[in-house]
Design brief:
The structure holds two protein chains of two kinds. By secondary structure, chain A is α+β, with helices and mostly antiparallel strands. Helices cover 33% and strands 31% of the residues of chain A. In chain A, strands 2-1-4-5-6-7 form a six-stranded antiparallel β-sheet, with helices on one face. Chain A is elongated and about 80 Å long. In chain B, α5 packs across α10 and α10 crosses α11. The radius of gyration of chain B is 22 Å and the shape is flat. The chains are: A alpha+beta, B mainly alpha. At the A-B interface, α2, β8, α4 and α5 of A face α8 and α9 of B.
Chain lengths: 360, 237
């Protein structure tokens, strides 16, 4: 659906330029809910703005199915239709076409404060040759989609954050785009509103086969609705893959940090740093990750019994990702060294991923 | 009534014809110069906003030109500007005196002021709204008319109010150099002939006019904040 290759974007003069996006390549498939996570300043906002050309990339190619491809080099941009043909200079007209195929929602909603809900949703429909009646029925249809029909004459100042974001979603979908770009759309919302917006996005993804590219700094959002995820750090994509793969076997250090902070297992580092009393006994501190193949088994007690070791569970988490369970435990194994080693080996045999955090 | 008026402001009644024609002259200067100011100031304000670095139609030359000219005319005191522009005024309207002769310097005096006000009002429109409009495929004209000018209406109304009030001040100054109007009436008939009641009445007239303008401006600005002035309700059935 969206294919990004070798994308670069920097800001400022050559010498002190900030490299916001560096050599990013992504392949976003039709129907994906594709998450891009990273801390602030990682370049994720710039990356998503390059997709609909709110920011013009310095170099790279972006191919959008049904629209064509845009190639940038040395600050110049060229366009080629899907059907092929030669590269031509990119014009405003091409950008309009591209943007009609891509809705976008924002952290701060960006609704027109002096316009009613109706006028906001009708904004992209006006001056496109539609009659008043057609616009009205399309707006009503969109408001039904986001369940906000009764607010049609309200002003944004009279709506809650979640309702404002619903209006923004309706507006973004007005031209029947096949892609929705979401820039921290839930970051300014309370937990309840966040959940309802995420549920709505998932529903739209299923109902309209809408491809969603979603930027966030919250792993919880990724866990809730994404099918694939890319992790960004300093302008680069350091890791990407299916959400389950990334969560169960994070490769890059930053991914691990994100995953740990979202599961709560990251707290062990803090406990170690603070010399918490629970860690004072002698033993091996290990971290176990259970994937879908072994969550169901009562391994801990079995291993404990068989090898005569004490398994002291300090932290634990279990979550459902894309319908598959993923568990994690931080365990302090106490007993003689040989028994500990055998116990760990046994866990490995049962497909549990074991990492030794500390020997004591 | 007439007797009572004659008792409290005898000289105004004596010169009533002159008084009314002065009011009319001030009104004319205010409306005509105001109209031009509104027109040019809006255009220049929009130009500054659109052409500024990072604006939607970034253009260094246009921005620098408008910005510099605005700064220059903003920094010349109006009384000096009046004299300085006499040759230009003659060239444009054929005379440098009377209502006609006052319009040109008034416009030159008020446009830079209003331009800055418009620029400030438009700068208050959050960049996010501009970005959202671009993302929806809105063109430059659409962004200026449907986002910038639409969202900034309350601030623009405040800008118009402030400019209108300062324009009244300018018209009285123009009176000092032979433009006629309430300003010159107060000086020539009030101050120079020692008719204090004429000065008082002129102050009162200006006070009332300014208060009405300010009140009207405040009301409209309040009513247009987060709201349209006239809302069309859409039926959901």
């Amino acid at each position: 659906m969206i294919e990004i290759q070798g994308l670069y974007k920097s800001f400022g003069a050559a010498a002190g330029a900030v490299r916001a996006v560096e050599d990013v390549s992504l392949d976003i498939c039709e129907g994906d809910v594709f998450g891009i996570v990273g801390y602030s300043g990682a370049g994720k906002s710039t990356l998503v703005r390059c997709i609909n050309f709110l920011e013009r990339p310095d170099a790279g190619t972006i191919r959008v199915k049904g629209f064509g491809a845009i190639r940038c080099e040395k600050g110049r941009a060229f366009y080629r239709p899907d059907a092929g043909g030669s590269w031509q200079a990119l014009t405003e007209k091409h950008l309009k076409l591209l943007r009609q195929d891509m809705g976008m929602i924002f952290q701060h909603f960006n609704l027109l404060d002096r316009s009613t809900v109706f006028e906001n949703v009708a904004y992209p429909l006006r001056y496109r040759g539609m009659t008043r009646g057609e616009i009205r029925s399309r707006v009503l249809e969109l408001l039904d989609l986001v369940d906000l029909r009764e607010k049609i004459n309200a002003y944004p100042s009279e709506l809650s954050g979640g309702q404002k974001q619903r209006v923004a979603i309706a507006r973004a979908l007005a031209n029947n785009p096949r892609i929705l770009l979401s820039d921290e759309a839930t970051s300014a919302l309370d937990p309840d509103a966040t959940e309802s917006i995420l549920r709505l996005l998932k529903e739209l993804n299923r109902k309209l086969n809408l491809t969603i590219v979603l930027i966030t700094h919250e792993m919880a959002v990724v866990k809730a609705i994404c099918s694939k995820v890319a992790v960004m750090e300093q302008g680069r994509v350091v890791e990407q893959g299916s959400v389950y793969r990334v969560f169960s076997e994070p490769q890059a250090a930053i991914t691990r940090k994100f995953v740990d902070s979202s599961s709560g297992l990251g707290r062990i580092d803090k406990l170690i740093a603070e010399h918490a009393p629970v860690l004072s006994g002698s033993g091996t501190l290990i971290r176990l990750t259970y994937n879908k193949d072994c969550v169901g088994e009562a391994l801990i007690s079995e291993v404990s019994r068989r090898y005569g070791v004490n398994m002291n569970i300090l932290l634990g988490s279990l979550e459902l990702l894309q319908g598959s369970p993923l568990g994690g435990l931080i365990v302090l194994v106490e007993g003689d060294m040989e028994a500990r080693r055998s116990a760990i080996a046994c866990l490995c045999e049962h497909n549990v991923i074991v990492e030794v955090i500390e020997h004591g | 009534m007439a007797e009572w008026l004659a008792s409290i402001m005898p000289n105004v009644v004596d010169y009533s014809e002159k008084f009314w024609s002065s009011c009319l002259a001030t009104g004319q200067m205010f409306l005509i110069a105001g109209g031009f100011t509104l027109m040019f100031g809006s255009v220049f304000g929009v130009l500054l906003t659109a052409a500024r670095p990072g604006g939607i139609m970034e253009n260094r030359w246009v921005y620098t030109l408008v910005n510099t000219v605005t700064n220059i005319f903003r920094s010349i005191p109006f009384v000096i500007l009046l004299i300085f522009l006499i040759p230009l005024t003659r060239a444009i309207v054929g005379t440098a005196i009377g209502v006609k002769g006052a319009i040109v310097p008034l416009v030159f005096g008020a446009v830079p002021f209003f331009t800055r006000q418009v620029e400030a009002a438009l700068a208050n429109v959050s960049p996010g709204k501009i970005e959202a409009a671009s993302a929806m495929g809105s063109g430059k004209a659409g962004i200026i008319l449907r986002v910038y000018l639409h969202e900034a209406v309350p601030d623009l109304i405040r800008a118009v109010t402030i400019t209108a009030i300062s324009l009244i001040g300018l018209t009285t100054m123009a009176g000092a150099v032979g433009a006629g109007g309430i300003g010159s009436f107060a000086i020539n008939y009030g101050q120079n002939l020692h008719h204090q009641d004429i000065v008082n009445v002129c102050v009162l007239v200006l006070l009332v006019f300014v208060s009405v303008l300010q009140g009207l401006g405040n009301m409209l600005a309040r009513r247009t904040t987060n709201h349209r002035l006239f809302q069309r309700k859409v039926e959901t059935k």
